[in-house]
Specification:
It is a single chain. This protein has one domain. α2 runs antiparallel to α3 and α2 packs antiparallel against α6. By secondary structure, the protein is mainly α. The chain is elongated, with a radius of gyration of 16 Å. It starts with a helix and ends with a helix. It has six helices and no strands.
Length: 116
């Protein structure tokens, strides 16, 4: 019922919400970086750096600018679904990759949302 508590506070996130978002972001980035490693994508390192930065924010605190910087959208390093439908190549298990990218970007969107 976190969402209800947030609505009662006027729709703004508090520090506990942000900490939860950062921890979910770390988990999503870790899972995505493992997938990227499996398919041989060099961008796995970039995703690991995002997870490390988020972990530092959990430990040391954050500003709104920190959250906006770490929560920037991640673009998959393979063609999107439309391009694949048209014959563009993609890695094996690309649907899993799309799901993982979406999970990272969903939490990133929350991180960039208005805070207190």
């Amino acid at each position: 019922m976190r969402w209800l508590r947030r609505v009662m506070r006027g729709g703004r996130y508090d520090d506990d919400d942000r900490r939860d978002q950062l921890e979910r972001y770390i988990a999503a980035c870790t899972e995505l970086s493992r997938f990227l490693d499996l398919v041989g994508e060099p961008s796995a390192e970039q995703v690991r750096e995002r997870a490390d930065t988020a972990a530092q924010l959990v430990r040391n605190g954050w500003t709104r600018d920190d959250l906006r910087a770490v929560g920037r959208p991640f673009r998959a390093p393979w063609p999107d679904g439309k391009a694949r439908d048209a014959g563009a190549p993609g890695p094996r298990d690309v649907d899993d990759g799309d799901r993982l990218v979406a999970a990272v970007n969903d939490v990133a969107l929350e991180l960039r949302a208005i805070g207190r």
